[in-house]
Amino acid sequence: MVQLSRLNLYKSMSYMAEIDDVAQGIADVTKELMYDSIHWQIAEYNAEGDNYNELHSHVMHLAITKMYEDINKEKTFSEKIQAQTSQTSTD
User: Fold this and answer.
1) Does pTM surpass 0.70?
2) For residue 70, is it within any domain?
3) Spatial CB neighbours of 7, under 8 Å, sequence gap ≥ 6
4) Distance between CA 80 and CA 90 in Å, rounded?
5) What is the tens place of the pLDDT at every residue in 18-53?
6) Residue 82 and residue 44: Cα distance in Å, rounded?
């Protein structure tokens, strides 16, 4: 459970800016890792030039879409905090 004193920390602008920087760093590294992984996974398709680039982009888009859809099945961090806050205020 998140304590009420910690909720103010989550709402502070500087904290959110730091979290945004962390998320951007993770996104950058993940994108690079995905790029390399896709390159390795599609090597057997013998695509070259524009066909290779199109295949690579398509696979990357599909993978990101699947990750996005999977993540959206769960409640977000903000939604969990709001739910806990609502439960605390009704208790």
Assistant:
1) no
2) yes
3) 81, 85
4) 16
5) 889 999 999 999 999 999 999 999 999 999 999 999
6) 48
| Res 1: pLDDT | 44
Phi, psi for 57 (deg, rounded to 5): -60, -40
Instruction: Compute the distance between CA of residue 82 and CA of residue 2 in angstroms, rounded to an integer.
Output: 10
Residues 6+ apart with CB under 8 A from 1: 84
Q: Between the CA of residue 29 and those of 3, 12, 14, 24, 35, what are the distances in Å?
A: 32, 26, 23, 9, 10
Residue 91 domain flag = no
Q: What angle separates helix 49-71 from helix 13-41, to the nearest 10 degrees?
A: 130
Q: Which amino acid is at 31?
A: K
Residue 2 has pLDDT above 90, yes or no: no
What is the Cα–Cα distance from 48 to 17, expressed in whole angstroms?
41
- Total domains in the chain come to 1
